[in-house]
Each structure stands twice: as C-alpha cells, then as structure tokens.
Amino acid sequence: MTSCKYLTRKLSWAVGIAFGALLLLQVPASFAAPPDVPGSDPNFEIDANVYDDGYLGDDWETVWRCTHAVGGTDGYDATLCGNLGGLNPEMVDSTGIMHDHAPPGGSNPSIFTTGGSKDTRDITEWKWKDGQVPDKDDIEHAYAAAYTYNDDLIIYIGADRFSNDGDSMMGAWFFQEPVAPQPDGTFSGQHRDGDILWVARFSGGGTVAELAGYVWNTGSLTLPPSARIKGTNLYQIFSATPGTSSAFVPGLY
Questions:
Q1: Would strands 234-240 and 187-188 be described as parallel, antiparallel, or unpaired?
Q2: What gap in Å lies between CA 55 and CA 43, rounded to an integer?
Q3: Residue 118 burial (CB count, 10 A)
Q4: In which order are the strands placed within the sheet that holds 247-248?
C-alpha cells in the first residue's frame, strides 16, 4: 500500500455512521467501485451497519477485533477475531477503529482553529486547539481499511458521531506523507500531489448524504481545468447524491 496517513477532523465535520469506498489515487490512476448489494462485494459488507453479519467480506466489527488501531482505542482480540472468521486475505492495511483522543500537548479532544485551517489551504497554515463542539459535530471514532479489488486499491472509510441529530459535514484526508498535530498548535507534514480528500455533506436532519472526492494538485497531475475548485489546489474527481448514480469528472480518467 502506498504510504498513507489518516487525519480525522472535528469542528464542523461530522457524520452519523457513514460508509464509502474510494480508490487511493496513484499517478495516474482510475476510480473503481465494487457492488453495494450486501454479500456481492467480496471484500466488505456495505449493509448500513458495523456488524459482521455473515455476508461475504469483512465489516467494521472485523476490523475492530482483528487489527490494532492507529493512535486510538484498541479492540484487538485474537479469540473474537477467530470467531468472526478473521480478516479477508485481500486486506492491505487498516487504521483500526480510531478513538478521537487529545493530541500531544492537549488535554481535551481537539478542534481546528483560525481562518487558515481549511481543506483548501496548505497544511502549514492549519492550526488546532483544545475545545468543544456541538454534539452533532462531535466525531467519536473514525476508521479506514484498504483492500485490493480487480487489481485496484479500494479504501473503505467510516466514522460515527455523538449525536446523529442535525445537518453537518465530515471529511477525511488520505495523505502520502506523515501529517500530525504538534504540541504548539501547528501541524507537521505537507501535501503531495495526489493526496485525496473525501467529503460527506449530511442534510435532512443528518440523514441524507451527498458525497464528493477531491485530489490535491499543484501541477504535476494532468487534470481538466474544469475540475479545479477555483482559487485552490483541489480538483473534484467524484460526486454522488442520493437516488442517483455515482459520477466521475468527465475527461479525468
């Protein structure tokens, strides 16, 4: 698996329980989406719950019991993992189930602060601090797992929040370089062209999700100008809304 670091963000980014599948971009790369009917995806259960229900493929319960979490609460249990049948052999890597914990130098769950802490800005401009957010924006756990599928690398991602009541958003970055909060309120690391941002916008009281995927590009990737978010280094590569088919940016792949 390409070296990839995961950053979950609070503040205005949150979900109820959201599930998605994204291909980790390489240069060049293509997107692929496995079937979403329970039991038809050989790698993962896309069935709107976290339990390993016996369908073909893993679920987040399997990831919880069969992997060690990155910087979070570890649910690994060899016996329970065995009872679930173990991990799918096509798994490449996983974050485990990461708990939202205080970073080094912090005493409470962290939030982004200052106007420069936006996904459109470089990591050197991001800032964090100890703080609180409304329940609907309070991410409790985040998780990601990567599998091979028809020679593609597919990443399944999800998160849960303290309260599902209310419109909100959730985002997850997939970096190629290590990125981490520092004790002085800044972040280490930097973007590389090809970093992926996945975003879910929840409306209808938090029950309806619109999904979008973006790639960071300062010029080394050949992408259509029409895909660029004006004034930024983000290019939209994917979108999906309830009741419609997934859509890829024309001419991108």
A1: unpaired
A2: 10
A3: 12
A4: 5-8, 168-175, 196-203, 208-216, 234-240, 247-248
The whole-angstrom separation of Cα 189 and Cα 119 is: 14
Q: What is the 3-state secondary structure (H, E, C) of the chain?
A: CCCCEEEECCCCECCCEEEEEEECCCCCCCCCCCCCCCCCCCCECCCCCCCCCCCCCECHHHHHHHCCCCCCCCCCCHHHHHHCCCCCCCEEEEEEEEECCCCCCCCCCEEEECCCCCCCCCHHHCEEEECCCCHHHCEEEEEEEEEEECCEEEEEEEEEECCCCCCEEEEEEEECCCCEECCCCCEECCCCCCCEEEEEEEECCCCEEEEEEEEECCCCCCCCHHHECCCCCEEEEEEECCCCCCEECCCCC
Using CA atoms, how far apart are residues 137 and 69, in angstroms rounded to an integer? 22
39 pLDDT tier (thresholds 50, 70, 90):
low
* Distance, CA of 214 to CA of 147 (rounded, Å): 20
Residue 39 is encoded by which pair of tokens? 């039991």
Question: How far is residue 137's CA from residue 64's CA, in Å, rounded to a whole number?
Answer: 23
Residue type, 187: F
Amino acid present at 120: T
> What tens digit of pLDDT does each residue of 80-124 get?
999 999 999 999 999 998 887 665 555 666 788 877 678 999 999
